[in-house]
Amino acid sequence: MGTDTEKILVIGAGGQIGGELTLALRKRFGAEQVLASDLREESPLIKGTGPFTTLDALNKEAMLRIVQEHGITQIYHLAAVLSAVGEKQPLMAWNINMTALLNVLEIAKEEKLKRIFWPSSIAIFGPSSPKNNCPQQTIVEPTTVYGISKYAGESWCNYYFEKYGVDVRSIRYPGIISYKAAPGGGTTDYAIDIFHSALKTGTYQCFLKKDTFLPMMYMEDAIRATLELMEAPSENINTHRSYNLGAISFSPEQIAAEIKKHIADFRIEYQPDFRQAIADSWPASIDDSEARNDWNWQPAFDLAKMTEDMLKNIKP
Ligand code: NAD
Description:
- There is one protein chain.
- Helix content is 41%, strand content 15%.
- The chain is α/β, with parallel strands linked by helices.
- It folds into 2 domains: 8-174 and 218-244, NAD(P)-binding Rossmann-like Domain (Rossmann fold), CATH 3.40.50.720; 175-216 and 247-314, Alpha-Beta Complex (UDP-galactose 4-epimerase, domain 1).
- Strand 1 (8-11), helix 1 and strand 2 (34-38) form a beta-alpha-beta unit.
- Helix 1 (16-29) crosses helix 7, helix 4 (90-110) packs parallel to helix 5 (145-164) and helix 6 packs parallel to helix 8.
- The longest helix is centred in the N-terminal third of the chain and has 21 residues, at 90-110.
- The protein is globular.
- The mean pLDDT is 97.
- Residues 11-12, 14-18, 38-40, 55-58, 78-80, 82, 96, 100, 119, 121, 173, 175-176, 184, 186, 188 line the site of nicotinamide-adenine-dinucleotide.
């Protein structure tokens, strides 16, 4: 896919992943080729790095106008309500997550866009799915509204591919850890908060139990995976539902021990809240062999390397 002919719209560019993805896409395709958008005003992370417009992804007419006016060829659709926020307002989460995705898919069909990226999540899995090395195809019975919306979204993506030939590609992101922007209200947010709190106060009160293992990934790996999937030749893509993607699996106790290697007197306490039930419904680790086979996925960051990088970058 030639970089100079692409015009990319990022929806949800003000978020934890959307901001860093916008910067990576601008580096790859050129600043002017990547139009960032969000419901909120432009975030400090992307301000001054390229074009921005406000867009409510629930407004299909506004989205269509932007696509036509800017000659958009690809959309990266990141806007969503995440797991912990979704459990507090289930119908609002369902409405935003589904309506926005269907608007993107309809416009992709009508305007014959070249390619769409939309992230799913490990939250599609539920208590009846295998806990360890959860495979891509297995029992899928999500128990959170977020997981239900992501699983329905995967089926819609596949439907638009099969029925209308929309080349939509997707990854089931694990918990994404990063330092550049604040997380958006997910169950894995503790693994980001813990670094800020450790550096600020030397302590952390964790909202999950110490032995809660969850699949996680450092942002740098997540961004690279996204670009690699989107640039993979079509014949290598064997699912237009979503790919399992794995990197690291750890518990609060393990990440705390890793932080202690850098901050010797760091202390952690555990006070589980409603997010424990969400975490308990998800797998502890992910089998991503299909992504590895189809488009050569390889993570670069393990827990030790990620911890070192987080502490180094948050410090200043
Ligand atoms: P985030 O909450 O940080 O960002 C979402 C952005 O979408 C926000 O800037 C918000 O203002 C915007 N938004 C919300 N409603 C909108 C609307 N109606 N119109 C336009 N913009 C709107 O989320 P994130 O962590 O960056 O996640 C991005 C995507 O990745 C989501 O689809 C999420 O489900 C998925 N995902 C994230 C993680 C993670 O750990 N962060 C894990 C799995 C999947």
